[in-house]
Amino acid sequence: RKKVQIFQYVFLKWGLALLIGLTTGLIGFFNNIAVENISGFKLLLTNKLMLQGSYFKAFLAFAGLNITFAAAAGSLCAFLAPAAAGSGIPEVKAYLNGVDAPSILAPSTLFVKIFGSVLGVSAGFVVGKEGPMVHTGACIANLLGQGGSRKYGLTWNWLRYFKNDRDRRDLITCGAAAGVAAAFRAPVGGVLFALEEAASWWRSALLWRTFFTTAVVAIVLRSLIQYCWNGKCGLFGQGGLIMYDVSKEVSSYGSYDILAVIVLGLIGGVLGSFYNYLVDKVLRTYSVINEKGPSFRVLLVIIISVLTTCCAFGLPWLVSCTPCPTDTTHECPTIGEIGHYKSFQCPPGSYNDLASLFLTTSDDAIRNLFSNTIIREFQMSSLYIFFVTIYFLGIITYGIAVPAGLFIPVILAGSVYGRIVGRVFHSVSVLDTGLFSLLGAASFLGGTMRMTVSLCVILLELTNNLLLLPLVMIVLLISKSVADCFNRGVYDQIVKLKGLPYLEAHAEPYMKHLVACDAVSGPLVTFSGLEKVETIVHALQSTGHNGFPVIGEPPFSESPELCGLVLRSHLLVLLKAKYFSKERRLSGRDILNKFSPSDFAKPGTGKGLKLEDISLTEEEMDMYIDLHPITNASPYTVLETMSLAKAMILFRQLGLRHMCVVPKSQGRPPIVGILTRHDFMSEHILGLYPHMRQHK
Amino acid sequence: RKKVQIFQYVFLKWGLALLIGLTTGLIGFFNNIAVENISGFKLLLTNKLMLQGSYFKAFLAFAGLNITFAAAAGSLCAFLAPAAAGSGIPEVKAYLNGVDAPSILAPSTLFVKIFGSVLGVSAGFVVGKEGPMVHTGACIANLLGQGGSRKYGLTWNWLRYFKNDRDRRDLITCGAAAGVAAAFRAPVGGVLFALEEAASWWRSALLWRTFFTTAVVAIVLRSLIQYCWNGKCGLFGQGGLIMYDVSKEVSSYGSYDILAVIVLGLIGGVLGSFYNYLVDKVLRTYSVINEKGPSFRVLLVIIISVLTTCCAFGLPWLVSCTPCPTDTTHECPTIGEIGHYKSFQCPPGSYNDLASLFLTTSDDAIRNLFSNTIIREFQMSSLYIFFVTIYFLGIITYGIAVPAGLFIPVILAGSVYGRIVGRVFHSVSVLDTGLFSLLGAASFLGGTMRMTVSLCVILLELTNNLLLLPLVMIVLLISKSVADCFNRGVYDQIVKLKGLPYLEAHAEPYMKHLVACDAVSGPLVTFSGLEKVETIVHALQSTGHNGFPVIGEPPFSESPELCGLVLRSHLLVLLKAKYFSKERRLSGRDILNKFSPSDFAKPGTGKGLKLEDISLTEEEMDMYIDLHPITNASPYTVLETMSLAKAMILFRQLGLRHMCVVPKSQGRPPIVGILTRHDFMSEHILGLYPHMRQHK
Question: Cβ separation of A505 and B218 shorter than 8 Å?
Answer without folding.
Answer: no
